[in-house]
Design brief:
This protein has about 100 residues and is mainly alpha-helical. The chain has 5 helices and 2 strands. The longest helix is centred in the C-terminal third of the chain and has 13 residues, at about 85-95.
């Protein structure tokens, strides 16, 4: 990782080859986590584009390294868990498609 780079950033992916990436799961996150980081990671994720993750940069790096494998959303959210599954699936698909269009 380059000095000063944020851990978990798109730049961390840039050094990988497409063959080193088995699959990609995307979600977004608030710029500042709530009080309990474990709870935030299991119940406070956001749909792609609703938070602070630079998903455009992640998508660009994945394209640049030639990744064409599986990609899905994994939005662990207490708010989304209250909605009908079909509605959540549609929201996840539409949000991710902005950055990863087919």
């Amino acid at each position: 990782m380059a000095p000063g780079a944020q851990r978990g950033s798109a730049g961390d992916l840039a050094g990988l080859g497409a063959h080193e990436i088995a699959g990609v799961q995307v979600a977004d996150a608030a710029s500042l986590p709530g009080g309990d980081l474990a709870a935030e990671s299991r119940q406070g994720r956001l749909l792609p584009g609703e938070g602070a993750v630079d998903l455009a940069a992640v998508a660009a790096v994945l394209r640049n390294v030639g990744y064409s494998g599986p990609l899905g959303t994994e939005v662990l959210s207490a708010e989304l868990a209250e909605r009908p599954p079909e509605e959540v699936a549609e929201a996840c698909f539409r949000a991710a498609a902005v950055y990863f269009p087919g």
